[in-house]
Specification:
Layout: H1 13-26, H2 39-46, H3 50-62, E1 66-69, E2 73-76, H4 110-124, H5 138-152, E3 161-164, H6 167-178, E4 183-188, H7 192-200, E5 204-211, E6 214-215, H8 217-222, E7 227-230, H9 244-257, E8 260-264, H10 280-283, E9 289-294, E10 306-309, H11 315-322, H12 331-342, H13 345-365
Parallel strand pairs: 4-5, 4-7, 7-8, 8-9
Antiparallel strand pairs: 1-2, 3-10, 5-6, 9-10
Helix pairs in contact: 1-3, 2-3, 4-12, 5-12, 6-7
Length: 366
């Protein structure tokens, strides 16, 4: 173990430590079932406090890399070679079917939204009547590019970001981009609109059963799918979150098949974790992930605004095949969202909700 903490890196020590230990786990240096070095050992060798080590280990627990065992330490539960694992227990945490927007999170402050709308009208004037570029306004796409880099670890260029009127519209664009001759796979159960879009597009699709930590391994590897549509953070309506092992299994599956994964990151902004949730897009090295999200949960479902980030290799095919489609989101609303991201109001709201959820969780455990 040789972990190095850079004091001038601009990254908290616990995050640096978390990332280095995580990499060792993924690489198999700490194998499945193995025990991590003690907190005191890590603290002494890295010259950080035991509390810092505990914070790093708590993140590893949150994301399914290790588990804490009383008076024994932390043990690795991440499997690098999962393939035909035993079927996981079936889902039992089904939430009532309906629209994914319903979740009981505190609403975005109306006063802030109204103030921003007035400011955009005042500052932008008649330019809000101008036609948006087909992929979306440059200002919003640049704001999203920076936001995703700092909050999701996603490195992308503006040309990879496409704005559209909600997830259903973007699902349809993906079908047109990747082709109707492909076989699409969805989680079962899943957000019903996903299946409805694929059925309406008259494409073949397979339903892959969810277990406790994601799609059942045997079902995944025996499927004939060319495209896998998943919600790894929290699938709706089951509430299932893909474990770290399962996320890496999805990436291995895509690499082996030469397939694409549609990563629907709905709701992940309100994670109670003290660090941003991992994305498959950020972890993928082969450009096999199409990342999707919307403002339905974070601002309001009535806005009907979503976005996707294409892997670089798909930007030219998208422009050639679908670049003629006009943007379906009004220019004015794109400027409003850009302003909310640029002035910090968007992330302040997210952080308030996350802090509130953490306090509620702590009160419930007290």
């Amino acid at each position: 173990m040789r972990y190095m903490i850079e004091t001038n890196a601009g990254v908290p020590a616990y995050l640096q430590l978390y990332r280095q230990i995580r990499e060792d786990i993924v690489q198999g240096i700490y194998p499945y079932g193995g025990r991590l070095p003690s907190k005191r050992t890590v603290a002494a060798e890295t010259s950080v406090s035991i509390i810092t080590v505990e914070h790093a280990c708590a993140l590893l627990c949150d994301e399914g890399y290790v588990e804490a065992r009383e008076r024994s330490g932390y043990f690795v539960i991440f499997r690098t070679g999962d393939g035909f694992a035993a079927a996981a227990p079936q889902v039992s945490r089904i939430r009532p079917e309906g629209k994914r927007e319903n979740g009981g999170e505190p609403a975005f402050p109306f006063s802030v939204l109204a103030k921003t709308m007035r400011h955009v009208l005042s500052e932008m004037g008649e330019s809000i009547l101008a036609r948006s570029p087909n992929a979306g306004c440059l200002r919003l796409r640049e704001a999203l590019r920076q936001y995703l880099a700092r909050s999701r670890g996603i490195s992308a260029e503006i040309g990879q970001i496409i704005i559209g009127s909600g997830s259903e519209y973007l699902y349809g664009l993906i079908v047109e981009l990747l082709g109707r001759d492909k076989v699409y796979a969805i989680e079962t159960p899943s957000y019903k609109v996903i299946e409805q879009v694929y059925r309406a597009a008259d494409v073949r699709y397979e339903r892959l059963p969810l277990g406790a930590d994601g799609i059942d391994s045997e079902a995944l590897w025996t499927s004939t799918a060319d495209v896998l549509h998943i919600s790894p953070y929290r699938s709706f309506p089951s509430g299932v979150t893909a474990s770290a092992s399962k996320r890496h299994e999805y990436l291995r599956w895509a690499a082996k098949r030469g397939a694409y994964i549609v990563e629907d990151d709905f709701e992940s902004e309100f994670s109670v974790s003290t660090k941003p949730e991992e994305t498959l897009f950020a972890d993928s090295a082969d450009g096999s992930i199409i990342y999707m999200n919307t403002f339905s949960k974070t601002v309001s479902p009535s806005l009907r605004v979503g976005y996707m980030v294409l892997p670089e290799q798909l930007t030219e095919p998208f422009d050639a095949k679908l670049g003629f489609y006009s943007c379906t989101v009004p220019t004015y609303m794109q400027y409003v969202l850009a302003e909310l991201i640029e002035n910090g109001d968007f992330e302040r709201h997210i952080n308030r909700v996350r802090r509130s959820k953490r306090r509620s969780l702590a009160d419930g455990e007290a």
